[in-house]
Amino acid sequence: MTPPHPILNRRLPTRRTLLAAAALAPWAAPAATRAQGSAPLPDAPPLPERSAGSEDAPMVVTEYFSLTCNHCAHFHLETWPRVREAFVDTGRIRLVWRDFPLDELALEAAQIARALPGDAYEPFIRALFASQERWAFDRDADKFDELAKLAALAGMQRWQVEAALENDDLRRAVLRSRLEGERERGVTRTPTFFFDDRRAAGALSFERFASFVSG
For 26-46, what is the mean pLDDT? Predict the structure, then answer.
């Protein structure tokens, strides 16, 4: 049996655990404190854009989401396919995904997703959302093993999954995405959408999403 990966199946505090706790600490601070920008943004290279749709689309929709958020899963599984067909494939919008991990597990799942080539990103996050109950909420599941199995279907070998989790630049970049969302755009929950500059939060129905595109 493969031993649990030390990152996703921690038992004793390690240097990495303590670093992660320090990085995640600002998320637990009161909203007023976060708004003041008291915690510095992690120094990290920018993440490559992950998006769907034409760069010439007249509207850019930005979604802040967490891979352990069940509302995000509902949107991606129930609403997103219709949105893609009606608005992305027809050239009306380009949807840009921004990481807003709500917890440590979401952060590490995002690291794995971001390590994939751009054309594999959307299918992988869809697979994560479709199996979220198993890898995110099953207390008996080996988190690393479940994520590694899903990543294998996207073409990643186990060593590549481990490398993504050990990549501190990637980790800081995902953290920075969340903190920038909080400070620069006032995001406090997932999913949150920006239709150009108009904000909408929650697992939008297709009809509500369409009203923002048309309005």
Answer: 57
